[in-house]
Please model this.
Amino acid sequence: MRNSAVHPKYARQTLIALRTIAWKETHRYLRIWLQTLLPPAITMTLYFVIFGNLIGPRIGPMSGHTYIEFIVPGVIMMSVITNAYMNVVSSFFGAKFQRHIEEILVSPTPNYTILVGYLAGGVGRGLLTGLIVTLISMAFTQVPIQHPAITISVAFLTALLFSLGGFINGIFARKFDDIAIVPTFILTPLTYLGGVFYSIELLPGVWRELSLANPILYMVNAFRYGFLGESDIPIQTAYSIIIVFIIISVCFSLYLLRRGVGLRT
Amino acid sequence: MEALSLSKLNKIYAGGVQALRDVDLVVDEGEFFGLLGPNGAGKSTIIGIISSLVRKTCGRVEVFGHPIDREPWQAKSLLGLVPQEFNFNTFETVSQIILNQAGFYGINRRTAHQRAERYLTELGLWSRRNSVSRTLSGGMKRRLMIARALIHHPRLLILDEPTAGVDIEVRRSMWDFLRRINAEGTTIIFSTHYLEEAESLCRNIAIIDQGQIIENTDVRSLLRKLTAQSFLLDIDGCLADVPKLEDFHVVPVDESCLEVEVRSDQSLNELFARLAERNVQVVSMKNKSNRLEELFVRMLERPPEAHRESAQVEKTV
Model:
């Protein structure tokens, strides 16, 4: 079903459809804030208490900063990644499972509008959670933000990329187990090994090289650069990698929607 | 104008099951059209393809002249769908479901509110507008799906077994509502297993079996094909012996009820005259089964080849 192109005459209607999906998705995570916003706040507070206050002073400085200052950007980024991903995958798969995705599929809403609408929900939740965790971190330490534009843009692009990942996972998922496999076996290990709690400078040669193949490393480091002005990798490389992954994911998502994979019989 | 046109529509599912074979169908604007067939005949596949939930293997689908492949916005905007199974978000309220659906069709919020009030009131759901949808009764859920399908004022409304599992009161109120919107100009395509419903509502009917349209005509012409009808007669008092009526096949159901088969070349007057001669008083009479149902069962008993042959003979004649 070709549903990706729209006549300019219908641009206003498309915009209303986009606003509807985006608001529907936003309203969903706000309505169930006990499941969506509160848990990451509690988990990240525990990270700050345990790794920052209790263990951190014994570890000593990392890349010229106190340990808690070093981990704050990584922990914020971890919450952005997890929440952006989980919001889209659970919402989209839920819509498939309950079949109310058909409400949108039978309507004239173009595929790119469906995609952008769901991404709006994921990016919104990712950034809101990131903001909450940032505010919590301020109770533990005052981390300076050296480059606000980089901090915000990297957070936005990362939330966008992982929302896309959640969308693709949601399209392929056939049962609830399928939406837990990727976060458990891929996302969490890559995040923990992505330099959230340590600098890759600490790793021996071969492990350092292997770490460079982990895309999350670039996002965490670019975000940390925004805060601390320090990064293990060049910031331009980080932007390039994030943007390339976003472009590939957008094209693949639109292809899947156009083919109706997992959606149309 | 043609509200819906299907041409050489084929569907082969993964695994090789051919659900539709060269289906050609035209539904004119303003019709109340019945799509009948046994389970697995292909009705829901046709509806799925029209509403773009099922990908066709080949063929052409046009809604009011707009091909669904090349002009999806125009075609889909003119189409409303009430699916067989509940497919709304059970965590949302009735209002949210309706207003979101309006949004998907690009209808602004103010207009959507006005229409939601209208349809929810007409379908008896206005007082439940703030209820979470999962708390509604089965009949209310059906009506919610109808209200949702109408929110963008479609010119063609497709209902896939909308009255399945609802009580007779709700069913009749739905019939009245559908008749009204049809009279107001909405073309309706209606799939059902209740054949008395189809006979009562639809002017034209297509019967599909094994992925092929085996009959497509108006209800009157279709019923004329019925060669005999069976009636149940309630008799005043008890019958000692079954009356022998020449030319009529009579079977006793119990001591005060007879089943009589009347061929299309016989009249009921003739039957009553014979019964009167034998001092049998008829208290009431009804069809043993729905006429369309009888015809439907007989048609489906014939192999599809026979349907094709008879269709060709009819065309030749």
Remarks:
- Residues 8-259 of chain A form one domain.
- The radius of gyration of chain A is 19 Å.
